């Protein structure tokens, strides 16, 4: 055996430990993890509760968006119906798509991650439980108020991909489009917070011994999912930001008369939008791959190939964005490249489908409700995948694009690949959190109604499309024989809805939330979420020796419950979990976790208020709310990063683990690095926009300000970074008192100064962001830099404040490290931006 | 980092090739130099994949523990599949 | 909308949806795509059959057959090797076909028409060899049978998409860009077209027609279109030039020179009104002028409800004669 951390794997032989555990350990654990009651529930910090609320909210949005679809189907049942006006219809289809994609599918996957991952990895909670709470409440408040816009006629009408110039202020005056841009931008932030949490959770909080090859397939799926979110979502954040800037400040990114280009939006949006489909599909596929072994009572055939399929999908899906743009007149060769990638991305899907079939063949499937949903999903997804290959063929896509054929295709893929697996998962995992499982008898009705409804609703749409019916039409003309297919589709939609309604009835009848005393492992799963649990998750954290630990060691559940593994008690008197190494899951240290707190809740509410008030253009109040939100976040951070008294504790079996670790091994460091990847992706996407616009309309480009300006900009940025780095070195050398924070406070404003100089250089050269797209992009870079500088300054003051209260641990402090990384990154991006915006027009 | 590099090697090769091809297609449009350059990049990418396959096979033999060998086995399959994807990616240079 | 039901397009077989337009091509550009579509359907059914059979055996097969399927060999053969072979063939086929259908390749054509997408109608300009506009029209394209016509697609406002499923695939009309597309009809007829990219408002009611004529008829049309006769004075003409119509509409040979809305020089020839949604006759013309908002809500033409029915009648008579 080799080790990545110097941990001696032979120590694992001590488990399970023998001998009885002290009496009061369990009570102590329960006391520490007991959630508050009454109004205090808003301050619950615990993945079991947050996870269930999260799933419930996402499901609510599924129902709401589904109701919109039902109304639309009535409108389309016959030609020239007057149920909805064209404006209302536009609101409905825009909200249906947007809510399904952004408020149901992605949050639902993250919600399942929040609920299931800590259980499957046998962690006590995700590594940043307050961030989970914040992400949930932000999504809850932001999502509901976004949805409410439809009741007051303010819902966006541009379709879920909001192409400009239709969504520009010229063609979409009013604040409808702003609701979309600010609302979605805001919800993306919550999604990214969740993704960071999931990556660090999967890589660093796995139970000891759970090496990568023993990691549950769902954890693989969520890891890849979260990685994709981190790479893809910055693109949509950037394009919503650019369009909002164009609408609010008249910066012409997408206006061809001033050097912008409407297709820039499509590139940015689909660079996010196509991976988004796989972001929704992969976790659902991972759910299927986790359920089938239990349902067929055998191991997953081709486990390694499925892992490869996840990884391959994650990469290749970033090379297919332009297949939504085959009709825009792209160069032939480029079209070919995207067509090839679109073919390649279907191979991993084939791998997974046949892995599932092979597993069913190897085992002994029983036709219970989860199995039915898995099978129904498989068949439906395969049909959607095949029409997907069809539209990857460019000439066919020229016919099918933007017609009901595409509507059919995408619903087959998403319902088959995501919704049916989700329902299977609801049935499969409900016994884990409910006193009673859902009804098998009703469940079969639910399945057959939903499955039949799905086919009846969407199969005829293929034909409607080939007959010439474009998507997003609020009506169609009589005499074109479209009535029959549309009427059948409407009937199907109501069958599907009847299935969902029956599911709701069963849910109301059977679901009773329980942390302890739940119905348990009804389907006989072999992974760790089926260990006996309380609100602290499992009593002790098991040593993992295989992929299906519960099947391999029938005594495991009892040993874990009796505390014979890691951390059978709270070693420090606080909430805690074991942080392990990323590849081999060797125990590294104990993370002290924060307890219940109302601050994440209030921070989320005020952040949501900030965005909503911005949308309705109440800027003054909005800024106040924003400031309060920041205050709440700082207040919640204030409690964190506090070392506890014992520097090392017995984590079970006499294995001693430190309670405070700094540097690249700490989970905080990992999170901030991932955050910087997100920010870096936004920056790279802005660079792409710059190069792209330059390539499209070079004649709009003016000479840049004299290059002499670069010297002070670079020097101030570098100087600021040097000061901050020196501050950290001094802190490491044990310099206490005020010197390190003071240096940081001195260094950070230098970055702002560099930005001010940069800004001045462009203004004095006559660059006005309203005049040309070039100037607008330059200002977009500076706007990003301004935000980074503001956060850097905030961090510097926060560090100073902590130091003034004697809360800055020396010689090393995670808070100080994180501020340092962020500020140095800001300086680097400031230099890079200043160079790139000048280099391109100069070099050409 | 090195273990991740080999593990994901095939996919990184594909990603690099794709990005370069996209840049070429966008800048040089559909022209002969674009086709030649795309072909050249494809050959380099195929070479990189072959190298990865050999490296992964060596690692499969010399791997020090179960996880090492597991990652090498996956790296081998990934690189082999990448060979197909990379070849497909180069086809438009010949045919489109 | 109830009024809509009574006024809108009555079925006359012109726009029959069956057989599905995509599978009922009328020219080479749509034809090769229809062949591709059938090939793709066949392959999709084959793959579905393979998956279905494997799944059937996995669930209900004999124990021995099931066990033979239950290993990663199945994934390698059916999930990797089989798709790779099928997809390679498809990719080669698709790339070849794309390249042969592209507007940038193949022989150039001498007949060019510029079509500009507007909210929510189509501006049509017939061009001469130098690219100058020979004549203006709207919502209707005349093309000669058997000849390839190249279209320059542009947009005046937001993104639209030009689609005549029986003649070719669709191509977007993007502000600031000019896209090219080739179409050809091999038989005389009227082919329905439709905006395919959501463009707000009454996008659903933004249709048009392509009229393929024998070459002699087409030549006659072009002669008439490029040298329209000046209309004689009439009550309708006077009304047209004083009631506000002329601010947005042009009629060649008269002071009416508005370019905001569709050119009406050839209105009497058109098959449809309101961009492909109404048959063009005296009654519909009167109804459209009087209150087009009731027929196509949200369109840019204000209702002229202040006009009496006699005035509407005179206007309709004048416009009907514009051929």
Features:
heterotrimer, A: 844 residues, mainly alpha, two-stranded antiparallel ribbon, two-stranded antiparallel sheet, 24 helices, 6 strands, globular, C: 323 residues, alpha+beta, 5-stranded mixed β-sheet, elongated
Textual characterization of the structure:
The complex is a heterotrimer of chains A (844), B (96) and C (323). Chain A is mostly helical and 844 residues long. In chain A, β5 and β6 form a beta hairpin. Chain A has 24 helices and six strands. Chain B starts with a helix and ends with a helix. With 323 residues, chain C is an alpha+beta fold. In chain C, 38% of the residues lie in helices and 19% in strands. Chain C is built from eight helices and twelve strands. In chain C, α6 crosses α8 (309-320). Chain C is elongated. Chain C starts with a helix and ends with a helix. Chains in contact: A-B, A-C, B-C. Chains A and C meet through α3, α9, α10, α11 and α12 of A and α1, α2, α3, α4 and β9 of C.
- Biggest interface: A-C, 90 and 98 residues
Strand count, sense and barrel status of the largest sheet of chain A are: 2 strands, antiparallel
Count of individual beta strands of chain A: 6
* Strand neighbour order, sheet with most strands of chain A: 1-2
The end-to-end span of chain A amounts to 56 Å
General form of chain C: elongated
Largest sheet properties of chain C: 5 strands, mixed
Number of helices of chain A: 24
Offer a concise description of the structure.
The complex is a heterotrimer of chains A (844), B (96) and C (323). With 96 residues, chain B is mostly helical. Chain B has helices at 2-7, 9-28, 32-62, 66-95.
Produce the secondary structure layout:
The complex is a heterotrimer of chains A (844), B (96) and C (323).
Chain A: H1 25-33, H2 47-77, H3 86-121, H4 129-148, H5 176-204, H6 217-249, H7 262-296, H8 303-316, H9 332-344, H10 346-362, H11 369-392, H12 394-400, H13 404-433, H14 440-466, H15 483-510, E1 533-534, E2 537-538, H16 549-552, H17 556-561, E3 575-580, E4 587-593, H18 599-615, H19 619-638, E5 648-650, E6 656-658, H20 667-696, H21 710-732, H22 739-764, H23 773-804, H24 814-843
Antiparallel strand pairs in A: 1-2, 3-4, 5-6
Chain B: H1 2-7, H2 9-28, H3 32-62, H4 66-95
Chain C: H1 2-7, H2 28-60, H3 63-69, H4 72-101, E1 112-118, E2 121-127, E3 133-138, E4 140-144, E5 149-155, E6 160-163, E7 171-173, E8 179-183, E9 189-195, E10 207-213, H5 215-226, H6 235-242, E11 272-273, E12 278-279, H7 282-295, H8 309-320
